[in-house]
Give the backbone structure.
Amino acid sequence: MAHSFADPRTPRILLVKTSSLGDVLHNLPVVSDIARHYPGAQIDWVVEESFAALPKLHPAVHNVIPVSIRRWRGKLLSAATWREIAAFRNALAACRYDIAIDTQGLFKSALLMSGAQGLRCGFDGHSAREPLAASLYQQTFAVSTGQHAVERNRQLAAQALGYALKNSADYGVKPLVIARPAWLPEGSYMVLLHATSRADKLWNEDSWIKLGCFLHEKNIRCVLPWGSEAEHARSLRFASSIPDAISPPRLSLNEVTVLLGGARAVVGVDTGLAHLAVALGVPTIGIYTATDPALTGLYAGTNIVNLGSIGHAPDVATVIDALQRMAAC
């Protein structure tokens, strides 16, 4: 049974989706759904500090409450860590919510939400990623696991808040406006997201270079962002083999958002930044080599293509064909 509000015109709603980058982005359509059905809602969001910039991209998010679980976990013997934990719990308890919804479905996210003042909701034991999480909610809902994460998030919130889903998913992102950086020359460019969290998700280097050289022939510059030193070295290797390609300086999440938002198109492996490109409405191709895009692939964009699957990486010709069908090159 869905929750009823004392004043349905201005409900106070807390969302909990802490990480990772792609998972946080997959929760943005929930905000759009809520704002559509409750235009006066105050929507707050608990998120890992390193991803705090993402909920702020949605104009309907009122307040972002950062947590630092990843950092706290390595410093549990520090008094400063426990002061930060206490400050977080105090901040959460200071606001009275009508309802709190954990779309993460993990024991740690359910535990974080346990200090919220309001009805605490989440997936039931058969639907949550960690069934034990359901024991910490006051109300649970069944949501089929065999569907994309975006729809699972949306369906949980819809059941908890009592509305029907009639529209397609809408990320609702309001792109950042920042001056074009000095290192990025004028003209058309495409972003190649070659970096990801696991080696088996990588696309082979020869394929990236062949794709980049093809784009150069089409007068499209390639930009190769990176995060770690190993990724930086790979970005430099690609830039030395692809004419006019750019290996940029290390970029903040906001700077990457601006870079992606201005791109002609984005090609990326299974990485959260590819989902960010989709949320920004940029034509995007996802390259999958070790994961199944049916459950967590690029989703809900008007001009997206998922290529490959577990053990089956796409070849360069297939990626180029997809870009041409998008009219991106």
User: Anything to note?
Assistant: The chain has a mean pLDDT of 95. The CA atoms of residues 201 and 290 lie 5 Å apart. The two ends are 50 Å apart (CA to CA). The longest helix spans residues 79-93.
